[in-house]
Amino acid sequence: MVLLAAAVCTKAGKAIVSRQFVEMTRTRVEGLLAAFPKLMNTGKQHTFVETESVRYVYQPLEKLYMVLITTKNSNILEDLETLRLFSRVIPEYCRVLEESEISEHCFDLIFAFDEIVALGYRESVNLAQIRTFTEMDSHEEKVFRAVRETQEREAKAEMRRKAKELQQARRDAERAGKKTPGFGGFGSSGISSGNSSSVIQDTLIEPEKPKPAPAPVRPSGPSKALKLGARGKEVDDFVDKLKSEGENIILPSTGKRSSEVSKALPAPINTESVHLRVEEKITLTCGRDGGLQNMEILGMVTLRVTDDKGGRIRIVLNNNDKKGVQLQTHPNVDKKLFTSEAIIGLKNPDKSFPLNSDVGVLKWRLQTTDEALIPLTINCWPSESGTGCDVNIEYELQDDALELNDVIITIPIPSGVGAPVIGDLDGEYRHDSRRNILEWCLPVVDMKNKSGSLEFSIAGQPNDFFPVSVSFVSKTNYCDIQVSKVNHVDGDTPVRFSSETSFVVDKYEIL
């Protein structure tokens, strides 16, 4: 038996998949398959037809044919057995016997055909062996992977055990280093169970700072060495040359990273003996085609008292939140008083808040997938052109009550393609060729400047411009929870206090 070729063709003789097992040209195979439908009506056989040179052994597959082209002196019984095996292989890889499905899995079929026939002669294999050979299933590989996974689990367990030991050692060292009991649970201190009228202050122990070593005395006289930090005429000329070539130069005095700027607002200059900080951080992830994957707001009210006369106080809050945040007070705060009157005070009114330490008295959390709650929406539309991509990115402020400062929208760009060509622009931009990013800078985004757009062109693919990240700072918080006043426990007389509010980004990405 010599099998010349195996093919799947249409009823018109068009070859979809063909595998030749002897040297045959493509024209020869296509000619034989094109002649096959014309010969079927002339012969009386229903499974094969012959010509002067070859024999066609075939089986209908709905609208297609499975055809074997053999020599005339091959054994017809073996040909039919081989044909049945070929016909059983095709449904293993194709869900439907249609031309599109056959074309999609053509390489899988060719690999399977090669396992059935080698150099024109049939191999002694069955369907299960063909499946095993094509999948390249290896018992040794499974054993190796099982051993590898076991080793990884053991390493992770050992890592967790070591971490627990280090944490326990750190807690033991902290307990041994404390000299006085404190305000337990409020940051690093807590309320003791001693006399209720006494005011307890933590003793902060700072490690001794190492003394700087004296600088070695250098011999006086002229030196040709490069002075770090000095900007002479040569440096200025080099910077001017780079600017003339189109490079965006950030000098050391103004080169603060945007991520560092967005972490915190400047602290107020004048603070009272009772100072309150209302802080919020946002973590947000959006899809590039729309849809909010996750948004989480974490907020906290932190108290710092620096005068022993202002320790016994109560904080009155103004909660105008309508977004459904979850509030949680400190365990030592009177929860009933807070729930009924929105007042933060200690369970024991005779005790005082700790002095000279930051105390977290209230925290809240908001987690949602509601797109209507996104504070700042970003839409990035990259579209392919003949020379690369045209990118249109726009922002829109959803909450008119917010005022966002130092907004920086960072877009990644492909490396090694040069600077982007900027079109329409609201605000300013910076191109960092070393980090391969384009930063869109907006000083203020508020109700008067709630939307804007940026257009640029550059070589690349649409996926090259994601993820887009956003950073900003704000002096107005998102959940609208503010401190309205502070009163003494005795007599409800008002206490002078200072406060600061900040709303910053922890993570804000469009994937």
Automatic annotation (TrEMBL):
Work out whether the entry's keyword set contains Transport: yes
Record field: compositional bias (Low complexity) = 189-198
State the annotated membrane topology for this chain: Peripheral membrane protein
What PROSITE patterns does the annotation carry?
Answer: MHD
Alphabetized, the UniProt keywords read: Cytoplasm, Cytoplasmic vesicle, ER-Golgi transport, Golgi apparatus, Membrane, Protein transport, Transport
Which superkingdom heads the taxonomic lineage of this protein's source?
Eukaryota
Identify the residues that the record assigns to the MHD domain, covering every copy: 271-511
Subcellular compartments: Cytoplasm; Cytoplasmic vesicle, COPI-coated vesicle membrane; Golgi apparatus membrane
Matches recorded under InterPro entries: AP2_Mu_C_sf, AP_mu_sigma_su, Coatomer_dsu, Longin-like_dom_sf, MHD
Which protein is depicted? Coatomer subunit delta
Source species, please?
Answer: Clupea harengus (Atlantic herring)
What gene is behind this protein?
arcn1a
